[in-house]
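task queued by scheduler; priority normal; single chain, no ligands, no partner chains; default sampling; output format set to structure tokens
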Amino acid sequence: VQLVESGGGLVQPGGSLRFSCAASGFTFSVYTMNWVRQAPGKALEWISSLNSGGKDPKYAESVKGRFTIYRDNAKNTVYLQMRNLKPEDTAVYYCMKGGIRGQGTQVTVSS
């Protein structure tokens, strides 16, 4: 199993970013995929999940209405579109399949 995230960076409050997570080594289209994050000095926080068919997205309250998860099973890729970013969104973001996560991508929200 390999998960490779990309798309992080430095963004100003109110800005937007989109993450991609390219998956390989398993049958991507049959698994629910998750996004989690870890802010400095804090525990891992689940933020979103999407089932295998791309339906029924779920979000943590902290990101609901600002983040959108979606996937392209033909490309074995799951995405996280983030809007109206806040300083408290600063964290390393990971995609996860079961208990396995990628190397993460850093987002810093700062003016």
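post-processing summary
- The mean pLDDT is 96.
- DSSP finds no helices and eleven strands in the chain.
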